[in-house]
Specification:
Length: about 650
């Protein structure tokens, strides 16, 4: 256990100031000892470059291997379960902050509001580290901009000038003149358990910034904070502590209920009459339910057994009158707040032996469980069934200690291994032109393959040789601003597969929009996104396409239409019980409209015109730049417009 340095003089002064105030005062009264400056780094570019790693990889094993109840050994045969109705993309990872002496901090909590996420950190001392005193206490707050789901960036990092661990956070209910309070439950080297208050400006930490400290007597560590009505509720302490109620406007202590092992607290709503739910952990764990009111009346208390390990995370999550508790070795249980009955559970027999349930979070679709070295479990609630159904396991070699799901993001805190950011997307955010066979070949191909111009292949091989960097060899290709087919008259269009040089099985498609109103987000083209070649792979290269296979887009596109192309990288995974359509959202999707692409709008496609063959040619580099060989020949498609005069081919890169 970390030692505490109790500053009796300053603590006594703060208590004198506290007791001399009246409830009518609007502002808290603090001594200088209770003020803490924050060193705020606002260099978003540097922070993101040094700590953020973008990955863009699908996660979760959707074929789940169950376990025998008694032996915890794998069954001989796989229990194949339905694929989740969403796909989860590992967008990136944020490395943990590092202090002097290689003290690596651990993410402890995530709050999400609008387009920003707030992450708190503390220092979890390692056995034999040799550090003592104040060096055992370190905190930090990161502010992450999640406006672009594919490109989260670290906006700010704030480091306190005093020694304190930051354990959890909560945000105020409202914002006034752009200001909103953020409260942090902390373990302070000077006074033990404390609540720090920070005022955000337009969702960001001002620079310079000051945090104000309020002690939570007698707890040695403040573990959680929750906000409702006019109050702030805090739990503190293990051998000493309890539940503390503060007036949120001035941080005056209004009520104290002392008991050991006060772990987490949460609220069912933000109004008077809602419930404040408190988790007491340890061998005699229990849930206490209070009415949110001036009296803070105890409504219900029920035992929930033992939570081990006793010093584990033991996260409480409240939703729909259920208290979800991560119970360590006992898995996860959801208790009815009125009766104490177990309504849902994930039992140890349905988890891997190495699992320790540290955290739980819920959205409208899934239950997410941080299961330590067992990884993140993705579960569904089955109506009429107590036991959760596991529909995915993401195991990645680090300990999943905390999880927060909100706004289609899933944040996983992994101790010193940093923070993972997943994005939940709808499965198949596109249409498919027609039915296709088990190889991904469309059944609506034109009856006869389109003849290929005799010189086209040799011309393309000279222009885009395999494994040669086109960006270096032909920088002029990338100065042409025209990346889409733009019609100047009504026309019908044909798309012909020419060749591919990809190592992945990609899906090729098109989308269209009024050229005078280009899209600023993928959502704006979702209604027209249409896959033409589900598996844009040739014979003997993972597919069954041959040069000349052609799709005719039935109907006429009007003048002024811009027709773009997209490539779902790794989109074809093959037809199986797990993927009955054979299609997925792949690793990432590239668009000919560069502003829709990942990594800040990198160009992933080229649009050529071969005058000798009178062919318009679209090509893609499938690996996300700056990676890959950059040869831009991974998928090659010919685009024919009828009548040909409906498009000006001189706009495109000459071959």
């Amino acid at each position: 256990m970390k030692p505490f340095k109790i500053l009796m003089g300053s603590f006594a002064l703060s208590m004198i100031l506290f007791t001399s105030c009246t409830k009518e005062q609007d502002e808290p009264q603090y001594s200088s000892d209770d003020e803490m400056l924050l060193n705020v780094n606002t260099d978003s570019k540097q922070l993101t470059a040094s700590r953020m790693k973008y990955i863009y990889m699908p996660v979760f094993d959707t074929t789940y291997q169950n376990f025998y109840n008694s032996t915890n050994t794998l069954k001989n045969s796989l229990d194949v379960i339905p694929n989740p109705s969403h796909q989860f993309i590992l967008v990136g990872e944020i490395a943990s902050p590092v202090r002097s002496g290689n003290r690596v901090l651990s993410a402890t909590h995530v709050e999400v509001l609008g387009n920003k996420a707030y992450v708190s950190y503390h220092y979890n001392e390692q056995s034999g580290s040799g550090f003592t005193g104040g060096d055992l206490y370190e905190g930090q707050i990161d502010v992450i901009d999640i406006t672009d789901p594919s490109l989260p960036v670290i906006l700010q990092s704030a480091i306190p000038t005093k020694k304190a661990d930051f354990n959890s956070m909560t945000l105020d209910l409202t914002e006034t003149n752009g200001q909103r309070k953020l409260w942090v439950a902390a373990t302070d080297f000077g006074v033990g358990g404390a609540i720090y208050q920070l005022t955000l400006q337009n969702g960001e930490i001002p620079s310079p910034a000051v945090m104000y400290r309020t002690k939570t007597p007698p707890g040695k560590s403040s573990n959680s904070v929750a906000r409702a009505a006019t109050w702030l509720f805090a739990t503190a302490g293990r051998t000493a502590g309890g539940l503390f109620t503060f007036d949120a406007s001035n941080m005056h202590l209004e009520n104290t209920i002392e008991f050991p092992n006060a772990k987490y607290n949460a609220v069912t709503g933000q109004n008077i009459g809602d419930k404040n739910v408190v988790l007491k952990s340890g061998n005699t764990a229990e849930i206490q339910v209070y009415e949110i009111s001036q009296a803070h009346t105890l409504l219900n208390t029920f035992s929930i057994g033992s939570i081990q390990p006793e010093d584990g995370k033991s996260v409480l999550y409240v939703k729909d009158n259920l208290a979800w508790v991560a119970m360590g070795y006992e898995g996860v249980k959801a208790f009815d707040l009125n009766t104490g009955a177990v309504v849902h559970s994930l039992s140890p027999s349905n988890m891997a032996p190495e699992c320790i349930s540290n955290g739980v979070s819920i959205d409208e679709d899934y239950v997410y469980i941080a299961n330590g070295s067992g990884g993140l479990y993705l579960c569904k609630i089955i109506p009429g069934q107590q036991e959760l159904s596991v529909v995915g396991i993401y195991k990645y070699g680090a300990s999943a200690n905390y999880v927060m799901a909100k706004n289609n993001y899933i944040f996983i805190a992994n101790g010193r291994e940093g923070l993972k950011i997943l994005h939940k997307v709808w499965e198949g955010d596109y249409n498919v032109i027609c039915d296709y066979d088990e190889f991904g070949v469309p059944l609506c191909l034109e009856p006869n393959p389109e003849p290929i111009c005799p010189t086209l292949m040799s011309t393309l091989q000279l222009a885009l040789p395999s494994n040669q960097n086109a960006m270096v060899n032909h920088p002029e290709y990338f100065t042409n601003p025209n990346h889409n087919i733009v019609l100047n008259a009504p026309a019908t269009i044909y798309f012909t597969f020419i060749d591919e040089g990809a190592g992945m099985k990609n899906s090729y498609g098109i989308y269209w929009y009024n050229a005078s109103n280009p899209p600023t987000s993928v959502a704006q083209i979702k209604s027209t996104k249409t896959v033409l070649f589900p598996n844009a792979s040739k014979v003997n290269s993972g597919g069954n396409l041959v040069a000349g296979h052609t799709i005719h887009m039935v109907g006429t596109f009007s003048a002024g239409t811009s027709i773009g192309s997209f490539l779902v990288v790794g989109g074809w995974v093959g037809v199986s019980p797990t993927y009955p359509t054979g299609l997925s959202n792949g690793y990432y999707t590239h668009y000919s409209d560069m502003n829709l692409n990942l990594n800040g709008g990198q160009q992933q496609s080229l649009l050529f015109y071969d005058a000798d063959c009178d062919n318009i040619i679209m090509t893609f580099e499938d690996v996300l730049l700056p990676g890959g060989d950059k040869d831009f020949n991974d998928v090659i498609i010919k685009i024919a417009v009828d009548p040909p005069t409906a498009v000006d081919p001189s706009l495109y890169i000459p071959l």
